[in-house]
Amino acid sequence: MFVDHAASGRGLVIAVKDNIDVRGMPTRAGGRHLGADPRTRDAECVRRLRAAGAAIVGKTGLYEYAMGGTSANPHYGDVRNPAAPGRDAGGSSSGSAAAVAARMCDAALGTDTLGSVRIPAAFCGVVGYKPPRSAMSRRGVFANSETLDTVGVVARDVRTAVRVRDLAGRPRRAERAPRRLRFAVPWHWLDGISDEVRDAFLGVAADLPGIALPPHEILGSVALTIARFEGVRVHREWLRRHPRLYGEELRAQLADNREVTGAQYRRALRDLALLRRRMRTALAAVDAVVTPTVPIPPPRLWRRGLASRRGLSDLTRPFNVSDSATFSFPIPGTGLPIGLQVAANEENAAIAAALSMERRLAG
Question: Catalytic site residues?
């Protein structure tokens, strides 16, 4: 019998971020509250991969409870960056990106609330894909933000990332991908990026036209307000009963998050709905938009302040607001890994754009 291996998971070796349940393994989510008892069921995305024939080889490290953009973890050790030794691997899906970059697996599952698949993919020089939230079930995934959490994929190339998404998730709509792709850049978003990132990005996108999108600061603020409030809600009982089980950095962050009021949260949800419509209307004018993934290259391993850590997601958060299909992949020829981000309203358009840009960069 002929088997279409591209349509199956046979031969794929997959690692899983440790906030996603894998049968027979504990889920600690990078923290100390969940215990070491093995899970009795796979998360739905893992179950689908197993059913397709993929080999699940283990769990990967992450920022504590997936609540930060760096690779620091005070309980299980920082994740190291194979592509840039001595540099941060990004977060929160740090181990997933590092495992792919080190060629320990073909791909890895991660989660993305404000950029947590794309940031480590950019820092480790691999591909990260955040599909729309509906693409993959979150059953069996430790919650961070019920409004923004998304299951995503880290892989060596775009085709592998899409293959894993298709095997692990719901069927994509059968819309036809555009034949002639129209790219654009929200140039007004690029104020404040580092010189290294600007030079690398201009080498790829200098000839692309501009597009008017809402300011990324406004989009990012709405996403961050929602994630902060919902994160405290997830952790409220543990904060009351076992606060010392948190690492010092996350404990301080949760204390800061508690300053978000219910009124601010409800206003942010209303703004999210409005901004999502505005973003999707603007994005419909082109097939895909292109930005840097992270404003800076991977920094050295050191403890950064909260504002600096949040700044890592300045260019990723807007596409969590719009729920766009969004890829990050490496710009070749840079001294340190630098990511290029491609986003579109529809998955097929995003995939076609990512494949096209990947070929362009390889050529």
Answer: 17, 92, 116
Cα within 13 Å of Cα(80), Cβ side = 4
**pTM of the predicted model, to two decimals?**
0.96
Two tokens, residue 139: 């059953």
Contact 132, 324 (CB under 8 A): yes
> Per-residue pLDDT tens for 263-280?
999 999 999 999 999 999
Q: Give the burial class of 334: count Cβ atoms within 10 A of its Cβ; 0-12 exposed, 13-18 middle, 19 or more buried.
A: middle
Pairing of strands 325-330, 339-344: antiparallel
Cβ-contact 114, 70 below 8 angstroms: no
Rg from Cα positions in the chain? 19
Residue in 127, 171, 178, 173 with CA at minimum distance from that of residue 7 = 171
Q: What are the residues whose beta carbons fall under 8 Å from the beta carbon of 69, sequence distance 6 or more?
A: 63, 90, 91, 92, 114, 115, 116, 119, 309, 310, 312, 313
Q: Are 272 and 222 in contact (CB under 8 A)?
A: yes
Distance, CA of 80 to CA of 97 (rounded, Å): 10
Which residues of the chain are modeled with pLDDT < 70?
A: 1-7, 177-178, 303
With residue 17 as reference, give the H or E element that holds it. Answer: strand 13-17
Q: pLDDT (tens digit, 9 = 90+) per residue, 217-250?
A: 999 999 999 999 999 999 999 999 999 999 999 9
Please state, rounded to an integer, the average pLDDT across all residues of the chain.
Answer: 95
